[in-house]
Amino acid sequence: TQDIPVSELALNPRRGGPKNLPIVDYFVDDDDCPEMRAIKHKPKLVILGTGWGSVALLKQLNPGDYHVTVISPSNHFLFTPMLPSATVGTLELRSLVEPVRGIVKGVYGHFLKAMAEDVEFSEKLVEVSGIGPNGEKQNFYVPYDKLIIGVGSVTNPHGVKGLNHCHFLKDITDARLIRNQVIRNLETACLPTTSDEERRRLLSFVVCGGGPTGVEFAAELFDMLNEDLCKFFPKILRNEISVHVIQSRSHILNTYDEALSEYAEKRFAHDAVDVQTNSRVKEVFADRILYSQKDDEGKIVTKEIPMGFCLWSTGVSQTDFCKRLAKKLEGQNNKHALETDTHLRLNGAPLGDVYAIGDCSTVQNNVSDHIISFLRTIAWERGKDPENLQLKYADWRGVAKRVKERFPQAANHLRRLDRLFEQYDADKSGTLDFGELRELLMQIDSKLTSLPATAQRAHQQGQYLGRKFNKIAQSAPGLQLNEVDYGDLDDAVYKAFEYHHLGSLAYIGNAAIFDWDGYGWSGGLLAVYLWRSVYFAQSVSFRTRCLLAMDWSKRALFGRDLMNF
Ligand code: FAD
């Protein structure tokens, strides 16, 4: 294909693949500038998605090493941690997004506003669908040497009926719809024709899910109702409004330190945000929500809340695209995410061709293997056979600390092991048999493998791949990347991925909480400013930082914009 002029190829692409679709090898602008010409025949790196993982990877890549193509239905990067603030007008929607074409241009890449539909692993082709000029779907193939899947996740419906009456909070369009609906409800409640009962229903806001997104939205909503309502809607009385959070577990923010989740609950109780714990939503209707609740005696009772607005925020699940890939590949046994090895290579795909990062993936990371390898090191240092190592409680503390640093998600399970060790310490004069330990670890291992689905993780994985691809390009220039039939190129050039947990933050309504490595901190205004500074510093560009600063100042001076368009 290299002898045919690029422009001709782009306009009249060759056809092929199992579906005999057009194959887009090069783009018209490949000949546009010297840099583009130089990378025309470099290894093809195709990146799916423009979220946290993909953008971190793009920012890390050395320009000119790869022929990069980015494919995503969103031509912007969304700064999700601040999305709840945009639902009530604290921040403007455009302040949270960064146009992605500028970022792609930084690596002389191409951007296609389209969806990945399928992957033909044996032929190294991604099937892509774009929307044509008349709104019709047009499918074609994009060939790759290396493919990175960073397509995120979708909201988990948990099989509940009536979710068409709910709002979701995943992207910028969701935030706009929520903002419009909240304001529409306030406006309708003010009409003289609206009855008292209908008013109370319209002003009843329900959030399903007590995780960080649900809690932050409830907090933002409460702030807005508290701070701007009497100013702009004097007809609405404060006691006519209610905010409810329905949570299936016994506490909200249950992945945070216990003290912090209790602090958040107290804060909500103080602000009259109603939290219903141990509750499962059964069905959502247009005007009410039905849920079952376990009472103190363990009896299940059915309850309902009349509502005018419902946010569904109960965790995430796999996209259809990822489900399709998982079905095709051997060794994909996880129902929630694509499994990768510790080099982030997709299990079951040809080695070194396909990687998966962020929410759509999970690293098959055998925590017990790591614990055992730490123990082997101890045995080796003591000149003992690991199988005969008699472990002291103090040794275990050291191992547990290192494992907890590497796998923060295992903290709860390590605490269980900790208690067992203490028991052994009392029973068996301070020692635990290596074999017994291994058996214990096997029993709980499956629960220790998944990493949290957070921006932090996706960002670290994107950066990791960027660094690794730079190394691959340096150490093997001109190498046909996937034709290495000896050894393991990824392993030879770079270490396996290691996640470093930098803590979690959550805004809970004029207060914020921080959870770092088991140490919690919560506070009022000071914490809120700290929370803002962290996100301000993390924002992708100078442009978004300026916009955020302007929004916060505008809100402080004039209040929120309570208009719907
Ligand atoms: P995403 O950022 O979701 O990006 C996925 C990309 O793939 C998108 O561009 C999408 O358009 C594209 N895509 C989807 N399907 C296809 C397809 N078939 N083909 C091509 N492209 C496709 N995490 C934190 O760490 N801290 C927080 O405070 C925090 N707050 C959050 C608040 C909210 C409201 C939400 C929704 C999430 C929050 N998260 C937070 C989670 C965080 O946003 C996600 O973990 C992170 O976005 C995952 O990054 P990702 O790159 O895997 O996917």
UniProtKB/TrEMBL annotation:
Residue ranges occupied by any EF-hand domain in the UniProt entry: 412-447
A Gene Ontology cellular-component term: mitochondrial inner membrane
Protein transport among keywords: no
Coiled coil: none
Principal place of residence: mitochondrion
GO MF assignments: calcium ion binding; NADH dehydrogenase activity
Location within or outside the cell: Mitochondrion inner membrane
Membrane topology: Peripheral membrane protein
Keyword entries, A-Z: Calcium, FAD, Flavoprotein, Membrane, NAD, Oxidoreductase, Transit peptide, Transmembrane, Transmembrane helix
Family that this chain belongs to: Belongs to the NADH dehydrogenase family.
Protein name: EF-hand domain-containing protein
